[in-house]
Amino acid sequence: MKSSKLAIHLLPLLFVLPSLAGAADVIRHKLPNNSTFPIAAAVEIPAGKTMVYLSGKVPSVIDAKADKASVAAYGNTEAQTISVLGAIRDQLKGLDLGMGDVVKMQVFLVGDPANSGKMDFAGFMKGYTQFFGTKEQPNLPVRSAMQVAALANPGFLVEIEVTAVRP
Predict the structure, then answer these.
(1) What is the pTM of this model?
(2) CB–CB of 164/102 below 8 Å?
(3) Cα–Cα distance list, 87 to 61, 79, 101, 127, 132 (Å)
(4) What are phi and psi of 49, to 5 degrees?
(5) What is the pLDDT of residue 167?
(6) Which candidate, 102, 104, 38, 113, places its Cα nearest to that of 74?
């Protein structure tokens, strides 16, 4: 008789425990050795969270008079990074998410003709650090950045895709 009463009292826990597991926060592991580089070493997503995958974003035109197939139409790597991350921020907002919900980022950089054909990583970082690792938005994603031969438009130097987690 006692065991059946205990089972009746424990039964609600079977329904509560799974929801508690999903209520845990995303865990962002810092880079080792007290690094201040603004990315996470790893991110853990607890069970029950919804992943949101955004397609790659490219920059918007900043000079309508320039040839749409030229870097001049979209700006340098820093300007393109700001444009792309702004578009990502706006799309996330439309999904009731924010930049702090981004957990993974893949960055595709084309070699900049003004930089001897090498990717302008410093220019990318100037744009990136306006959105990540700030006092207003300290959550850092894991991130890969790579130089690619080309993007869909010869004027694009930057394309970024992200994965976010719905809180």
Answers:
(1) 0.84
(2) yes
(3) 12, 12, 15, 13, 15
(4) -90, 150
(5) 84
(6) 113
CATH superfamily membership of 2-166: RutC-like (3.30.1330.40)
DSSP assignment letter at 85: H
- CA 42 distance to own-chain centroid: 13
DSSP-derived pairing of the beta strands 142-148 and 102-110: parallel
Closest to 118 in 3D by CA, of 148, 82, 98, 151: 148
β-sheet bridge partners, residue 148: 110
Span 25-75, pLDDT tens digits = 999 999 999 999 999 999 999 999 999 999 999 999 999 999 999 999 999
DSSP state of 135: S
- The one-letter code for the residue type at 28 is R
Tokens representing 60 are 């918007």
